[in-house]
Amino acid sequence: MSEDHKLRLSVSHLLDIPSLSREDIELLLHRALQHKRHLAEKTDVTQTLAGKVILTLFAENSTRTKSAAIMAAHRLGAKILDWDEKTSSSQKGETFSDTIRYLSAFGPDAIVIRHKDYNAPYYVAKQVKCPVINAGDSWRAHPTQALVDALTLMELKGRIEGLTMAICGDVAHSRVAQCNMALFHKLGGTVHLVTPDYLRPEKIPYPNVKLFNSFEEGLKGCDAVMMLRIQKERMDQSLIPDDAAYFNEYGLTHDRLAFAKPDAVVLHPGPMNRGVEIADEVADDPHRSAIFHQADNRVPVNMAALDLFLP
Ligand code: NCD
Question: pTM of the full predicted structure?
Answer without folding.
Answer: 0.95
